[in-house]
Amino acid sequence: MQSEKLQRRIDAYLAELRRSLGELPESEVQEILREIRSHILDRAEASGELTEERLVAILKALGRPDEIAPMYQVDAVVAKARASLSPRVVMRGIQRWSMVSVWGFVLFVTGVVGYAVGFALILGGIGKIIAPHQVGAEVGPHAIFDIGINNDPSARDVLGWWLVPVGLAGGTALVVATTRVLRWTLRFARIRRPTERRAPA
Amino acid sequence: MAATRDPEGPDNWERQVKKGWLELAILAILWNDKFYGLEILRRLEKDTDLVLAEGTIYLILARLKAEGLVDTKWVEAESGHPRKYYWLTAAGRRRAVAMARYASGFLSSINTLIQPLLEKEEK
User: Which of B59, B61, B95 sits opposite A199 (nearest CB)?
Assistant: First the structure.
């Protein structure tokens, strides 16, 4: 009776750990879970009879799953980004990569610019709907092509109402394109931590 | 972008430092012999105070395996449940030596740097 309850407790811990490790390759997850189960049993044997109190102490020493699992997986963040459509998740993956490689950093900058311009276009399109007289795409002596609120009387609103479709469609297209390009390049990201760099012989 | 929550959770400098040294400590423990996870852990706990959450060790070992630095085998034990043994591969031995050299040089230069701080403490 008692041991069944303890068994359930161990299973619950491992299930939670599995969730936290979810983005690692399945075979690796299986191995880690099997090994940690073995660890728990070993620790339990060392202490004679396994009591609930003892089990709690063993699990506590192992650490909370959500605390130990993310510590060693740059690859998981990257893997998640690779499958995501959310700019936030994709950029987080790129940011991880940018910390270990110059390419990652270049892409990080590309992502920042791509998303910033994309969202600015969308904002411009929305702004034109809300405040048509203040917002426009200006070309003038002080602006090559400025989307936003115009304070410069000499500037000309070149797009007029076209800013709405151009901003919304163009901005969305740019955001989607940026996401696609970043995700595609993430396939070439070093998946492992920077320690994978070849050690000097 | 900097405001995105870091998935590593609340960091402190101590955890960061330990994380870096753990890998070298594990490679050093495996230098002469094969051990299973809990044995490695016991040695770490005896000789160092690097271990914070014990479960971390198994994730580091899994990664060392994925990087080809260690090899493993499940071995049936008398206790009834199998244990996973680890040993260094040739690449692991090269990595261990490289890391040890780096660590040794690093430690001596840091030691020189922090000497004034320690002297101040003694006064």
Answer: B95
Q: Is A89 on the interface with B (CB under 8 A)?
A: no
Chain centre distance of CA A119: 19
Cβ <8 Å between B53 and A77? no
Nearest chain A residue to B65 by CA distance is: A28
Q: Do A38 and B81 touch (CB under 8 A)?
A: yes
Establish whether this prediction's ipTM goes over 0.85. Answer: no
Give one DSSP letter per residue of A113-169, joined into a string: HHHHHHHHHHHHHHHHHH-TTTEEEEEETTEEEEEEE---TT-EESSGGGHHHIIII
A residues 92-121 closer than 8 Å to B (CB): 92, 95, 112
Find chain B residues with C-beta within 8 A of A36's C-beta: 55, 58
Name the packing angle between helices A171-186 and A102-130 (round to 10°): 160
Tell me the pLDDT of chain A (201 aa) as tens digits: 468 888 999 999 999 888 877 667 788 888 889 999 999 988 888 877 788 889 999 999 999 887 777 655 555 566 667 667 788 888 888 887 777 678 788 889 999 999 999 998 898 888 888 877 777 777 776 666 777 776 666 677 777 788 888 889 999 999 999 998 888 887 666 544 434 344 444
Q: pTM for this structure? A: 0.58
Q: Please name the residue ranges forming H helices in B4-122.
A: 13-29, 37-47, 55-66, 90-122
Output the six-digit token pair for B64.
């060392």
Q: A34 — contact with chain B (CB < 8 Å)?
A: yes
Which token pair is B6?
A: 């870091």
